[in-house]
Amino acid sequence: MADKIKNTQPEEIKDETVQPVEEVVEPIKPEVVEVIAETEIEEATIVTPTYEFSVGDTIKVFYKIVEGDKFRVQPYEGIVIAINGKQHSKTFTVRRIGAGQIGIERIFPLKSPNIENITISKHGQVRRAKLYYLRDKIGKAATKIKERKVKTK
Fold first, then answer.
1. SS3 136
2. Does 102 map to a domain?
3. Whole-prediction pTM value?
């Protein structure tokens, strides 16, 4: 039985031998290492601003929109209904009421280079982490959140 297990591979595969391939690797020049190190340092020193807002706050997001070779900044104002993710993959969802009393939601990545600025209009006092119940509200009730008093330093 052991002989049958050993001979289960076809003869063609057994006879082939793999020849080692020799690769010629050139040493890296010190100038190239310095250029790579400088670009890594520049990328690491790019500071993304941190924004202090929470769920329930009314914010205005100034988002860069590229149209062909030009770009413009479009403000988007609404209530933060959710914050998801951690660190670099953190996103937040902003909901606003558009024309005709239609709710419009947009998800923004927090560390996006397209976000020019975020301003906080109003701090909301809520007792939930996600405000998805606002989707069912219509009209004024969809934007009604109690205001939270914030201590300024």
1. helix
2. yes
3. 0.66
